[in-house]
User: Which sequence fits this backbone?
């Protein structure tokens, strides 16, 4: 589904990703872990197409297409979803209007008919339950005045409604208490399916107790310095990142 | 780029003293900065002043004072503090004949049909509507609704003609023209407009809609007077519109006297044609416990200036001055407000928002002046602007001048562009740049429209704003 090859990217003159290679197949959950500043969030933003980041080298192919040539909205219309680490507040736009617009834009792009507000309401009811939020969420402005936990749940709610093929969760767990974490994880798990894939970017192993990954990758200094199965996460929890950051620096020296 | 200040104990705050000094300087500047650039156009006003039909003695005297003051002041230059960001040269350098005289010669007003005005209504029949064409009342186009007891709504010209008592007590007494060229000019040509009188306790359930339709290349000087008695209540909407694009000039003045406990919702909708010129002043005096809700919506004209000046004369009078201005192309839209806190215990709230696109230029100037006696004043003022194009410009100047020592006043102004992160957020959800831009722009404007209490008006303005941004997107 997703093939990342020697990806280099950064902001301005500052290179943050320095050669990422990663392959994600349908049905898989990949965890990307690493210390602060390792490039985890940059990877997530670059995959979603944030124009603040510049890709300087490498390729990314998504279902056989060149992802890097696609505008962010085209990526979304083709099934990519990024749950933001810091969801953006948009005062004056209701959640319902925002999400229905997104839903319909994606349908239009895929040659499907738009759905009307009533149909849409039916659709979102059950998804709200998934993240344990009530209907009043719909009439509130997008993320405006939301608590940290509400914002993260709103991201998962959007994900549930838009039903992406490739979901990228950027530190969705940070700042969440254990109950909110469980709700978020349950939301993600319910959406698991053989034709979909998820990349979970996280700083902590904690989330992976609830979302069990097929693969774990450790990022340091803009490179994947170690990949393994779910047990790698436990090892990280025990030993911290320091022993791997050394590896990253070494790899940097070699390259 | 945001600025906010809270001032308490003003005498200890040196910034306030400076502001006070600036005001004095501006006051002197007004009187001294006389433009002599366009004697030709002033001559034409003089000629038409002589040609207009005479009125009763009190009116003749008032007009004469207006004309004398207009000639003494001349058109303001940008050296005048009040006109610093707005050059009136496009108005001063043209000659506008009095539209009423032109149409009397067979040119004008008859062409407007009732059906033409449908689009300026708000989907509600049964509103009491007064229509003025090029400044003159048109009975055929107007429609009366049951107004209830103690309410009189009529054409000012007719009221003057029939010698209605009491008009002279108010006309020219509220809208000061010593410093204001355009108000002086309007005063020189006082003839027609709306007269709305509410007796004590009178309540008008339905809004009263005043529609000023203009055409051609002339000038009209609508003069409105609203006198609201004790504990009366009404909603008045003034619409300035045009059926087709032409370069006329509207120079309107509305005087409003609110009695004790009176409550007025006043909306001014400036939707002039894109080549037109508009200067409009709404000036209010508020007695104790009165409430004013003013909304100023400005989207039309090539050069437009709206002044809303209120004076909180009585204890616990309140005012809310809100507004929205949208400019595009080469439009210049200027909004000035002034709130004089004269009496104590008065809250005032103000929110103006602007969206500027193309090469347009927006101006906001909001003065809040707290007199020494106006203790316990609670004033909040903000002005937020959104620039949609790199060539659009806005000048904003919130001014607080405080001479009482126990007050709470805040003011702030922002100028910004669409947030890149918010754009990306919408894009990342599948919403492309164009619809995302529309959504964010609309959201910016919508929250001030939210403050309009009259539901059909709010809905209609929301639709207009949405359509306008959708057009921009398509272009």
Assistant:
């Amino acid at each position: 589904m997703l093939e990342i090859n020697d990806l280099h990217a950064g902001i301005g003159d500052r290179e943050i990703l320095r050669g990422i290679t990663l392959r994600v197949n349908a049905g898989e959950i990949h965890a990307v872990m690493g210390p602060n500043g390792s490039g985890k969030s940059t990877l997530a933003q670059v995959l979603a197409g944030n124009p603040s980041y510049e890709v300087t080298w490498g390729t990314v192919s998504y279902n056989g297409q060149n992802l890097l040539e696609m505008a962010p909205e085209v990526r979304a219309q083709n099934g990519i979803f990024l749950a933001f680490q810091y969801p953006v507040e948009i005062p004056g736009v209701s959640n319902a209007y925002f999400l229905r617009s997104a839903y319909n834009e994606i349908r239009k792009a895929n040659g499907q008919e738009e759905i009307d507000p009533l149909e849409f309401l039916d659709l979102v009811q059950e998804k709200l339950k998934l993240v344990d939020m009530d209907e009043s969420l719909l009439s509130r402005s997008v993320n405006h005045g939301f608590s940290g936990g509400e914002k993260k749940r709103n991201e998962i709610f959007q994900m549930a409604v838009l039903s992406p093929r490739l979901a990228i969760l950027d530190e969705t767990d940070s700042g969440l208490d254990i109950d909110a974490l469980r709700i978020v994880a349950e939301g993600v798990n319910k959406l698991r399916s053989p034709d979909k894939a998820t990349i979970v970017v996280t700083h902590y192993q904690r989330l992976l107790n609830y979302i069990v990954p097929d693969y774990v990758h450790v990022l340091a200094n803009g490179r994947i310095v170690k990949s393994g199965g779910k047990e790698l996460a436990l090892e990280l929890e025990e030993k911290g990142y320091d022993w791997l950051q050394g590896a990253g620096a070494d790899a940097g020296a070699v390259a | 780029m945001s600025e906010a200040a809270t001032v308490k104990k003003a005498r200890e705050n040196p910034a306030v003293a400076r502001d006070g000094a600036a005001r004095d300087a501006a006051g002197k500047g007004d009187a001294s900065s006389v433009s002599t650039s366009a004697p030709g156009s002033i001559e034409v006003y003089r000629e038409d002043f002589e040609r207009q039909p005479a009125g009763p003695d009190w009116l003749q005297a008032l007009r004469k004072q207006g004309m004398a003051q207009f000639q003494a002041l001349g058109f303001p230059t940008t050296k005048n503090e009040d006109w610093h960001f707005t050059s009136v040269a496009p108005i001063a350098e043209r000659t506008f004949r009095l539209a009423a005289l032109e149409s009397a010669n067979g040119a004008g007003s008859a062409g407007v049909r009732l059906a033409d005005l449908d689009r300026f209504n708000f989907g509600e029949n049964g509103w009491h509507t007064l229509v003025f064409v090029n400044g003159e009342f048109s009975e055929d186009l107007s429609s009366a609704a049951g107004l209830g007891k103690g309410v009189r709504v009529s054409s000012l010209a007719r009221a003057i003609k029939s010698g209605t008592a009491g008009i002279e007590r108010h006309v020219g007494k509220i809208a000061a023209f010593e410093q204001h060229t355009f108000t002086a000019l309007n005063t020189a040509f006082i003839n027609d407009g709306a007269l709305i009188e509410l007796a004590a306790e009178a309540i008008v359930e339905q809004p009263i809609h005043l529609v000023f339709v203009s055409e051609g290349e002339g000038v009209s000087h609508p003069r409105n007077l609203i006198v609201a008695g004790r504990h009366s209540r009404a909603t008045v909407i003034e619409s300035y519109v045009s059926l087709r694009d032409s370069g006329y000039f509207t120079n309107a003045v509305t005087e409003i006297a609110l009695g004790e406990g009176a409550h007025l919702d006043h909306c001014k909708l400036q939707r002039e044609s894109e080549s037109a010129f508009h200067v409009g002043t709404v000036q209010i005096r508020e007695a104790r416990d009165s409430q004013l809700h003013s909304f100023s919506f400005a989207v039309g004209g090539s050069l437009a200036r709206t002044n809303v000046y209120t004076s909180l004369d009585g204890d616990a009078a309140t005012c809310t001055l809100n507004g929205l201005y949208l400019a595009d192309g080469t439009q210049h839209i200027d909004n000035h407000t002034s709130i004089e806190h004269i009496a104590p215990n008065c809250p005032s709230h103000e929110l103006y928002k602007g969206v500027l696109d193309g090469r347009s230029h927006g101006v906001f100037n909001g003065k809040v002046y707290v007199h020494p006696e106006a203790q316990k004043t609670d004033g909040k003022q903000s002005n937020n602007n959104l620039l949609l194009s790199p060539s659009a410009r806005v000048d904003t100047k919130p001014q607080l001048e405080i001479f009482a020592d126990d007050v709470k006043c805040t003011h702030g102004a922002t100028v910004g562009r669409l947030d890149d992160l918010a754009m990306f957020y919408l894009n990342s959800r599948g919403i492309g740049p164009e619809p995302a831009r529309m959504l964010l722009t609309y959201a910016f404007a919508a929250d001030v429209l939210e403050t309009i209490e009259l539901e059909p008006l709010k809905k209609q303005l929301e639709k207009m704003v949405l359509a306008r941004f959708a057009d921009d997107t398509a272009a």
The domain at 2-254 of chain A is CATH 3.40.50.300 (Rossmann fold). The interface with chain B takes residues 48-52, 71-73, 75-77, 81-82, 84, 87-88, 90-93, 97-99, 101-103, 105-106, 109, 141, 158, 162 of chain A (CB under 8 Å). The first strand of chain A starts at residue 2 and ends at 11. Chain A has nine helices and twelve strands.
